[in-house]
Amino acid sequence: MTQIVDFALVDAVLEETGTRERRVRLLPSRVVVYFVLALALFEQDSYRGVWGKLVAGLEGLSLVRPAVSSLSRARRRIGAAPLRRLLETLAGPVAYRGQVGVFYRGLRTVAVDGTLLHVPDDEAVTWRYPKRSGESMEFGYPLLRLLVVVECGTRAILAAAFGPESDGELAYAGRLLGVLDRSMLLLADAAFDATAFLRDVKTSGAQFLIRSSARRVPTPFRHLGDGSYLARLGYGVLPVLLEVRVIEAQVTVSLADGTVRCEQWRLLTSLRLSIPLCM
User: pLDDT category, 279, cuts 50, 70, 90?
Assistant: First the structure.
């Protein structure tokens, strides 16, 4: 882990965020940062189990065996700021120019998507991440919604945002657009086909290729020679229009058990008319 996140970087982040310890401790802030990173790698293990993995390569040294309560207090002591700053420092594209599986027609392909994570059912958490509610009672574990932008091919994280599940994916995706630029092509599924979001992606300078939801049926105003067509999508209170290129395709998937599935796909893109979409 220290080959990727070296000591000097962790120390610099702690100094910048004002979380370096002011007196010698059995659990220095630098060690606590690595412990939290290890918690993410071994999320199914207990605190004590993760600590054992963290120090497994240090046999022969005189090591402390901190109590679980000490590890918990140490996490609270450093807080979230150094981890957030560490992500901001390390996040970003890593593929070299032209690397196979990453670039399309000179554009770096990146993707945005989200997932839901369970968090502890505890009052210290549920005030921020409430449980789902039915007609008469709450049920299940509280959920955290996580959105990330990743570089296709390498899966390197460019940016991340998270918060309560009650806020939709688009609310968090809008906070990630600052990492996009004119060298990128953003890929996304149907949950991200909102016109205002597409407009914001275009404003960032990036191109987009987004799967359209079944509810959207654009009206063509110009048919193109390759079978795609141009359409205008309206958004906002005023009749503002966003021009997109629409590609419709019949996708047939043959499964190993002999089952054949056919689906109609509709894609929305800002790619120029001069760029053919076939690979």
Answer: very low
From CA 240, how far away is CA 238, in angstroms rounded?
6
Phi/psi at 265 (5° precision): -110, 145
The predicted structure's pLDDT at residue 178: 94
pLDDT exceeds 60 at position 274:
no
- Predicted model pTM: 0.83
Closest CA to 39 of 14, 68, 12: 68
Q: What's residue 240's pLDDT?
A: 73
Q: Which residues contact 141 (CB under 8 A, 6 or more apart)?
A: 118, 119, 120, 121, 131
Predicted local confidence at residue 85, as pLDDT: 94
What is the pLDDT, as a whole number, of residue 137?
A: 66
- How distant, in Å, are the alpha carbons of 68, 82, 199 from that of 20? 21, 10, 42
Output the 3-class SS for the chain.
Answer: CCCCCCHHHHHHHHHHHCCCCCCCCCCCHHHHHHHHHHHHHCCCCCHHHHHHHHCHHHCCCCCCCCCHHHHHHHHHHHCCHHHHHHHHHHCCCCCCCCCCCCEECCEEEEEEEEEEEECCCCHHHHCCCCCEECCCCEECCCEEEEEEEEECCCCCEEEEEEEECCCCHHHHHHHHHHHCCCCEEEEECHHHCCHHHHHHHHHHCCEEEEECCCCCCCCEEEECCCCCEEEEEEECCCCEEEEEEEEEEEEEEECCCCCEEEEEEEEEECCCCCCCCCC
What is d(CA 41, CA 217) in angstroms, rounded to the nearest whole number?
43
Separation between Cα atoms, residue 46 and residue 59, nearest integer Å: 21
